[in-house]
Structure formats: C-alpha cells, structure tokens
C-alpha cells in the first residue's frame, strides 16, 4: 500500500474543564516501513468497527455561490479535498483545517488526548484517504539491556473518530452513493452524528437493513431452486465467505460478483432473482458483520431424524414450542412433502 501523503497532528486535552489544544505538525511524515505497518494495522482495526456508509451531501443552501450550485458539494471538507486533489492546496494545510474543527468534537464529547492521523494511500488501483483520532494506552516494553520499561502504545481498538474516503470512486465518472464510511459506535451516537456533519456526510445505505434483506433474498432463492441440503450448505458458505472477506477488506458486497460466485454455470441466476422479485437492494451492499454472524445453520440428529435449517428462519418459517419441546415447520419443502404423500397413498 504505497503511502502518497501522511501527517500526524496532536490534540491535547488536560483533565477537568480545560479545552483541547491542537498542536499541528509543521510538515508531512517521512515514509517508512513502520508507517506502512501502522497503516496496515489501522485498516484491519477500522474494518472491524461498526460504520455508516454514504457520500458527501449535495449543495442545497440558497446562499451558495453559483459555482457551488452547479455541482460543488455542500461539505466544506469535500471542497477542501477537491482543492487538494486538484493541486490548489497542499496536504498539511487541508489537514490542519480539518483538525481544528475536530478539536470542537473532542471538547464536546471526549476527555482523552490523541494523535490525529491523515493518510492518502494507494491500494491496488484504488486511492483512499483515511483519517482517525488515535488514542494511547500504557504498556511495557523491553529495552536494549533486557529491562522492562514503560511504553506508550497506540490503542487501535479504541477508535472513536475515523473515516475513509474512496477517492477513486468519488472522483470517477459514475460515483456510487457509498464511497465514504465513518465510525458509528453504538455508545456514541451523538458523537457519530456530529462527526458526520463535520464531514458533510449523508448516509447512503442502511448496511444492517440491506444485509438482512440480502440474506432473505438468498434464503428465498435457495428455497425456490429447491437445492439438496449439501448444495444449499455450500452456497451458504460461499455467501458468508465472500461477505466476510469484503468486510475484512472494508469493501461493499457487489450483487453481480456474489451471483457469479454462487453459480458459475448460471452466473446471473441469483442476480436475476433479486431484480425480478424487486427486493429493492442496492447494487453494492456494505456487509454488516453482526447480521452475518447470525446467519448460521441449526443442525441436529437423533433417533433417525436429521434436521438442518438457517438460523434466521427460527421465528418465521420455523417455530420452537418450548413447553412441548417440538419444532413447527410452517412450510414443508416440496421434495419432502412429495415423499410423504407417496408413502401415505
């Protein structure tokens, strides 16, 4: 992942009611193996965080200039990025402006000191900009004399403010509505909302709802095609493997790519199923890891009875009567139903 530009500012906040103070870096950091290692670790930590996905909001203010009304984004942050990408402002200057505004969020919601990291980097053919407020924790290290010494460590698990922009996608001729993502911890809703406002971000897709709908569409598809149990399990594993890999990379799932993976002989079959049934899904869906983790199969075998079904069907197509200790199947698979009827005749 070649790093094109990187800079680290410091935000200090003393205990009590003292306001946070920005200590901006005078220049960019020099490229190094350690810096690339940090970026790799940061990306892994960021991909694992709960996030919102969206895009920069459009201009709506009637007081905007004519130039802004004709297509410039309403977001100050987005306009500063455009100036940077077009060569009108340098990287340290743009990041200092953003850092000054983030100080306000720290004063309002946080009580910890941190370093504000900005990285413009290339990954394959795609260019990204990531920013994050990195906190510290006390740890220990071993010095050259093999003595234990105190050491400050970056706490990447505690990432209260972070965002990533897919610059290539944003600046392409056909940008999506989810090239921008930002952290949204469940315990800091107000902070996440104000951070989105600072970025000028508009949520473009509900990752949880879209992932849930995708899984429903998949279950309907498997049931409609009436696949054998082993083949159904293989396709479920394929979906979950693909979704997990995309989540690990911090990239959305693509319906067409998923359809091709599910059936190499008929690569458009699942995609056509989604479109024909009108599930209202976006072409690209950010995977929600919590929803995916619940999409597993219950299996059991006893006294000549073997049962297996997707866990999300419990409570809808399948009910469990705890008092009677029995399962109620509301819709019997057609193949099983035919076998039972033949035996009864």
UniProtKB/TrEMBL annotation:
Annotated region (Disordered), positions in chain: 15-38, 53-72
InterPro entries in UniProt: Nucleoid_associated_NdpA (IPR007358)
Keyword NADP: no
Protein keywords: Cytoplasm
Signal peptide residue numbers: none
Localization annotation: Cytoplasm, Nucleoid
Transmembrane segments: none
One of the record's GO molecular function terms: double-stranded DNA binding
Pfam families for this protein: NA37
GO cellular component term of the entry, any: bacterial nucleoid
Similarity comment: Belongs to the YejK family.
NCBIfam families: PRK00378.1
Protein name from the UniProt record: Nucleoid-associated protein YejK
């Amino acid at each position: 992942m070649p790093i094109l530009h990187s800079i680290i500012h410091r935000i200090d906040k003393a205990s009590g009611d003292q306001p946070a103070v920005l200590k901006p870096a005078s220049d960019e950091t020099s490229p190094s193996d350690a810096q690339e290692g940090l970026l790799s670790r940061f990306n892994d930590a960021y991909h694992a965080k709960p996030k919102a996905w969206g895009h920069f909001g459009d201009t709506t203010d009637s007081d905007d200039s004519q130039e802004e009304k004709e297509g410039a984004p309403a977001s100050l942050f987005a306009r500063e990025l455009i100036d940077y990408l077009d060569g009108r402002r340098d990287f340290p200057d743009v990041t200092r402006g953003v850092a000054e505004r983030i100080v306000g969020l720290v004063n309002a919601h946080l009580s910890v000191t941190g370093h504000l990291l900005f990285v413009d980097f290339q990954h394959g053919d795609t260019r990204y900009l990531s920013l994050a407020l990195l906190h510290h924790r006390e740890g220990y290290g071993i010095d050259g004399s093999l003595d234990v010494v105190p050491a400050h460590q970056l706490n990447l698990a505690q990432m209260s403010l972070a965002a990533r922009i897919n610059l290539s996608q944003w600046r392409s001729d056909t940008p999506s509505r989810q090239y921008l993502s930002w952290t949204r911890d469940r315990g800091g809703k107000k902070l996440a909302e104000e951070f989105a406002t600072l970025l000028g971000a508009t949520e473009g897709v509900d990752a949880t709802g879209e992932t849930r709908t995708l899984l429903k569409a998949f279950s309907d598809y498997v049931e409609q095609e009436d696949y054998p149990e082993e083949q159904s399990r293989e396709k479920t594993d394929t979906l979950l493997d693909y979704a997990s890999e995309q989540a690990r990379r911090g990239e959305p799932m693509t319906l067409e790519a998923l359809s091709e993976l599910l059936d190499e002989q008929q690569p458009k079959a699942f995609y056509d199923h989604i479109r024909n049934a009108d599930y209202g899904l976006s072409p690209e869906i950010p995977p929600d890891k919590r929803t995916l983790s619940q999409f597993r199969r219950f299996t059991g075998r006893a006294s000549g009875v073997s049962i297996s079904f997707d866990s999300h069907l419990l409570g809808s197509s399948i009910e469990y009567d705890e008092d009677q200790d029995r399962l109620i199947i509301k819709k019997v698979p057609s193949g099983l139903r035919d076998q039972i009827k033949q035996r009864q005749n």
